[in-house]
Each structure stands twice: as structure tokens, then as C-alpha cells.
Amino acid sequence: MSVKYAMLGILAEKNLHGYELKSSFDEKVGEFWSLNYGQIYTTLDRLEKEDLVTHDLQTQERRPDKKIYSITRKGRAELEEWLATPVNKVRALRDEFFIKLVFMDKNDPGPILELIEKQKALYLKQMNRLTQQKVRLKKKPEGNVTLVTELLMDAGLFHAEADIKWLTLCAAKIRAESGEKSETGGYP
Amino acid sequence: MIEIMNAGKTYQQGAREVHALRDVSLSIKKGEFLSIMGPSGSGKSTLLNLIGGLDQPTSGEIFIDDRPLHGITDDELTLIRRRRIGFIFQFFNLLPILTAAENVGLPLLLEGIPFSRIKPKAVSLLEQVGLGARMEHRPEQLSGGEMQRVAIARALITDPAVLLADEPTGNLDSHTSEEIFMLLAHLNEKGQTIVMVTHDPKAAAYGTRIITLKDGILSEDISLGGANS
Q1: Quick one: angle between helices B144-156 and B115-128, nearest 10?
Q2: Which of A37, A53, A114, B84 has most Cβ atoms within 10 angstroms of its Cβ?
Q3: Is the Cβ pair B214, A132 closer than 8 Å?
Q4: Residues A8-21, mean pLDDT to the nearest whole number
């Protein structure tokens, strides 16, 4: 779904052939999103059928012609509309950890509380790794690519932080439910 | 570099004994950036105060560079604290009548060293924390983030063995906070040992190692090096 718009966004800047498109995609968002050539070409075919992109043939000596893709007026309009529209989808609640909670024994909160602590430590470690990457990234010269990557890392950090807070609340509620005296458990 | 062996701290609160810290053993290596996490009442500030020589353990031993911080006189402790340990706090604790450069030089001014001899180092530290253009400003002319940078420079003027930070961005917005943590991370990369107390996982994540305290006991020890809980 967003692959389509990422490719329209790239073609809105410059006409490119498939191979260059993949390089540009990798450069812009490759840190957190990987695509193979198959996906690139299927998406391009689809975009062409929808009249959002078109191609010119570039003849090459002793090699097959190269398709140079460009965005159409219709494609540009659709990209602009997509860029201006906020994302309506809330993050999925179908979390694997949540499913584990559902199937754990409510009468014996010990193992659940232990699992919660382990999960929190894991998220903290993730935050640690992401933050260290960010520190390293900040040392490189700034540019559009690093800013967007940094903002995405921030998003990852905020999500992990929210998960930690949620797990802390889970533990407090499970303790209260099981009649155990509520204690301040771990970090917030 | 910092060795904490079976440290405990008990307070008397009326008729009740409060165990703020129970039998904590911890070894902090030179060049480490250690984050100490835990909710309020977990003992994290007590632990920082013990490392900083602001308080003494009721049991156990603490060494900085093989020199004991326990069982010594208050005067000896004050001397170690002044010369070997740098502090930064949530409230920046700058003197309003002094310029940024004078605030940075304050720990050495208190030792009786004339400002003319301190100034070059104060200036160089202010440049390091990105305040080269703010030398002559007084605290009221600085933003919160800038005041904390001055406080960091001040903490470094004695070349401390360890920089201790207690919720250093508790009073700053999240973008300014991030700039302060980035500065700490870069100081750490240059070799500065840092121990920071925080309840905020985003702040703690700047550490090269994170420990968690719960009810006065060490409950997690996470480091990207591999070993963890």
C-alpha cells in the first residue's frame, strides 16, 4: 500500500529506471524497510495500469531497451492527496504478548508478573540499542535522510516507552486483582 | 574504578527502620555510562549519593580508584567529593550573580585559585558544551538547556573521575533533553565516566549499561555488551 506512494514520491523527484528506483528507495528508507526487485517491478506494473506512472524506452547497444519511468499528472495528484492525508489507522492491538496474557493462568499471577518484567527488560534493551544507534547517527553530517531516519528511531523509542508504561500498568492491575498489595514495580 | 561491595543504607523514620538500600554490589568500570533506573523509593538516589560521597553507607564498602569512601572523616569525604566527583542536578544550581564562565570556574574559585588562572579552562569547557558565545551571560539570560550545559561544564572543571547526574533533564522539554543526553553521550565517548539516575526509560537508554533497582535491591543489569538479567 505505502510502497506505491513511496515509489510515486521517488519518481516525483526524478525519472528513473527500475534499478535506480530501488537504489533510491534503499537510500531513503532502506534502514527500516527492505524491498526486492520483484516487488519494485510488480508495483511499477500496477502503477502503470492505473495511469499513475508511464515509461519511455531508452535504447542501449547490444543490451535490451531500458524502461525509464516517470510520474504522470494523475500520479502526482494522487501522491499530493496522500501526503496531505493523516494516517487513520491506529497501531494494531493484536500483539503476541497480549495473546500470551489472555492464555495465562489468572489464578496464579506469579508467572504473568515474571513475564511482564522480562518483557519490560527486553523493551528497555531495544530502546538502549536504538538510542546508541541514534547517538552514532548524530555524529555523521546532517541531511534529509539522517533526519527522517532519526525521526523514525524516535518513533520506535516512543512506542517502546509506551509499551513499558503499559506493562507497568498491567502488572499493577494484575497485582490489585489478585489481592496482592500493590507495590511500585520496576520503572514507571 | 568504582567498587560497591554489599552496600546497605538504613534510615530511622520515627520508630520504623527504612531499608533504602539492601546489600547492593556493583562494579562501575572506567569509561562506562551507567544509568540507574527505578521508581521513586527504589533506592536509586540513595545509591547515587553514596557513590558521590554525599552520604555514607550503614553497611558495606565503597571505593573510588581504590580509595575508600566509607569510614573516613567528613573533611576527607568533602575533599574527595570536590576534586574527584562532578555533579549535575535537575535544578541547575548556578549562582545568579556570576557569569557563565565564573559559574564554571566556581569549584576552583572555592579552592582559592584566582579566576585569571581558571578562565582558559572554563572557556574551553564552555566551548565544548556548545556555549562559546555565552561566556559572559548570567544565568537569567540563559535558557534551561543552556543553564544545564553550564552546569555540566562546571562539573567537569576539576577533571572528575566520575560525573554524577540526578534526573538532569527533569526540568527540560523533550527536544532540549535529548540535546543534553547527546552531549553526555559524546562526553562519555571521549572517555568520561558517567553515572546517571533517572526514572525515564528514554533517558536511561543513553547509558552503555542500565541497572534497575527495586525496593533497594538490584533487579536488572542490562548492557549491550551481551550480559544481562
Answers
A1: 120
A2: A53
A3: no
A4: 90
Nearest CA to A147 among A25, A28, A35, A34? A28
- Chosen for mutation from A118, A128, A168 (greatest number of chain B CBs closer than 10 Å) is A128
pTM: 0.77
- Do A125 and B224 lie within an 8 Å CB cutoff? yes
Tell me if residue B217 falls in helix, strand or coil.
strand
State yes or no: pLDDT of A26 exceeds 50.
yes
Q: What is the pairing mode between strands B85-88 and B162-166?
A: parallel
Report the alpha-carbon distance of residue A81 to residue A5 in Å, rounded: 10
For residues B146-175, average pLDDT: 92
**Contact A121/B220, CB-based, under 8 Å?**
yes
- Look up cell 500498568; give the residue: A169
Measuring CA to CA, which residue among A96, A112, A88, A123 is closest to residue A170?
A112
Task: Identify the residue among B182, B188, B199, B223 best suited for mutation to test binding to A, counting A beta carbons within 10 A and taking the highest.
Answer: B182
Nearest-CA distance from A85 to chain B in Å?
26
Quickly state the pLDDT bin for B227 (edges 50, 70, 90): very low
Residues of B in contact with A157 (CB under 8 A): 202, 205
A138 CB neighbours in chain B (<8 A) are 182
Rounded average pLDDT over B28-51: 92
Amino acid at B119: K
Distance CA(A2)–CA(A78), nearest Å, equals: 12
Mean pLDDT of A16-28: 86
